[in-house]
Write a structure and sequence with these properties.
The protein has two helices and 29 strands. By secondary structure, the chain is of the alpha+beta class.
Length: 398
């Protein structure tokens, strides 16, 4: 009987609107949650019988519709370890499972992903977001180059940077073309203990467009020398390679003279000198750059890259499984994960010192709320009317 069918249909409508209200309440509650992706509602009709002669009341079902792929607004923050993603992709994160005796954490092997980039360094040095998930990345070698391959939680050490000896000195200078007397100059280098040492350089013109450079320690010990030749017209070095190898204390020192020239100057002009090596440095700060490099800075002016943050993409990110704390898990429907550097092969770009806000629009959610309320009320009216009509039917016997 259609009265029973209409009542059943109206009840399904009430249930569907109740589910929609649940989605709306979840969205509104998390409107200020970093990296949160709202849940929209899709309604589908379920038919029991329908043809050209008759149509039985059907039902409606409400299903959640994910919005993982929809961008939230990016907001600049003061935290240099925060990251925001613009475009396609997510961060790879791991959930802590326990702690080792040395204080390091062990992590669950289940791959998890998030857009919540409010990362900070915890007491163990790991970069974790507000939900406690640890950021994963590629480790970097001693040269600061990312070793693309296995992802691992990024950990920043507070240990000091050891001192390094100077290996190369690069000079940018001009020699006077008509100099008669030898010229003296100095450069400061570091030994293996991080102590500064002075290297004296003596420039002697041996012939037209020809010079000899000799290095000595501050105590006068000879380090090494090299003969240089210059083009008479351009003043550029002509002998190749333009380097002299000196033995400075406990380190082999290379003097790079590629930027040396001979010109119509009155005296030796040293425009710049660059040396590698440094004294030991204490940990000062850590930051993540827009290219994903995790950089640690020290109080001796040095810095080093310890890891690189990649971006993980999926063919259908909206099909990922929603987890606690703005995280998502893998599903077959989402497709295979692809890990690549930010801004490459369709992956989104990174913004340092920024976070992505929730993609919830409060005004739109209030509009949905009003519609859901009215639809629910309308369905209750159908139930009430159907009940009254059934009552009238029963009272026909009286």
């Amino acid at each position: 009987m259609s009265l029973f069918g209409s009542m059943t249909t109206a009840i399904s409508g009430m249930n569907a609107q109740a589910r929609a209200l649940g989605h709306i309440s979840d969205n509104v509650a998390n409107s200020q949650t970093i990296g949160f992706k709202r849940t929209d509602t899709s309604f589908a009709n379920l038919l029991t019988q329908s043809n050209e002669r008759s149509h039985a009341p059907s039902a409606v079902v409400a299903t959640p519709s994910a919005t993982v792929s929809l961008q939230g607004s990016v907001e600049t923050v003061e935290n240099p370890l925060s990251l925001a993603l613009s475009g396609n992709g997510l961060f790879s994160v791991a959930q802590a499972a326990g702690r080792n005796a040395d204080g390091s954490l062990t992590f669950d092997t289940q791959p998890l992903f998030t857009r919540a980039g409010d990362f900070r360094k915890d007491s163990s040095g790991y970069l974790v977001n507000g939900s406690g998930y640890a950021l994963q990345g590629w480790a970097a070698n001693a040269a600061g180059e990312a070793q693309q391959g296995v992802l691992a939680p990024v950990r920043i050490s507070d240990a000091p940077l050891p001192a390094t000896a100077t290996r190369t000195v690069t000079l940018n200078a001009s020699l006077p073309k008509g100099a008669a007397a030898p010229i003296q100059s100095q450069v400061q280098i570091y030994n293996a203990a991080g102590e500064q040492q002075t290297v004296n350089l003596t420039w002697t013109r041996t012939a037209d467009n020809a010079w000899n450079v000799a290095g000595t320690t501050a105590e006068g010990a000879a380090l090494g020398e090299a003969n240089l030749a210059f083009d008479a017209n351009t003043g550029a070095l002509t002998n190749n390679p333009p380097q002299a190898v000196l033995g400075a204390g406990d380190a082999a020192l290379t003097l790079n003279l590629a930027n040396l020239a001979q010109g119509p100057v009155a005296a030796y002009e040293q425009r710049s000198v660059t040396v590698d090596g440094s004294r030991a440095g204490a940990f000062r700060s850590a930051a993540i750059r827009d290219n994903g490099d995790v950089v640690v800075s020290y109080d001796n002016g040095q810095s080093r890259t310890v890891a690189k943050v990649p971006v993980v993409t999926f063919t259908n990110p909206d099909a990922l499984q929603r987890m606690d704390g703005q995280a998502f898990g893998m599903t077959a429907e989402a497709g295979t994960m692809q890990v690549q550097a930010a801004g490459t092969q369709g992956a989104g770009t990174l913004a340092s010192s920024a976070v992505e806000r929730s993609n919830v629009d409060i005004a739109a959610e209030f509009s949905k709320l009003i519609v859901a309320q009215r639809a629910y009320t309308a369905n209750t009216r159908i139930v009430t009317t159907s009940d009254e009509m059934l009552t009238e039917t029963i009272n026909m016997r009286r």
